[in-house]
Design goal:
Blueprint (H helix, E strand, L loop, with lengths): L4 E4 L4 E4 L7 E7 L1 H4 L8 E2 L17 E6 H7 L3 H11 L1
């Protein structure tokens, strides 16, 4: 199985999605239909979804969603809250 790259922060290990570009954060996995409901202007749909453990997901119509970290900072938003808000809106 393919895994994403681990990154250790002060409080936990996070997985960097292999499609994540400089200046981006991974927001969530979503279907193409759900992607349209993501409110962030800089959102970008990736190709291959990974779970929270960094394992590739083989679900049909399930893709990673990225956004520019700058947009989060400018909005004064936290990534965890943005993820939670998206999931609760579905």
């Amino acid at each position: 199985m393919t895994q994403s790259t681990p990154r250790t922060t002060k409080d936990k290990t996070e997985f960097l999605h292999p499609e994540q570009k400089d200046g981006e954060v991974f927001l969530t996995n979503a279907s193409r239909g759900d992607f349209g409901h993501v409110p962030w202007k800089t959102k970008r749909l990736g190709l291959i979804a990974y779970d929270g453990e960094g394992e590739r997901m083989y679900a049909e119509d399930w893709y990673p969603v990225f956004m520019q970290q700058r947009e989060l900072l400018e909005a004064g938003a936290e990534l965890a809250q943005a993820r939670s808000d998206h999931r609760s809106s579905l």
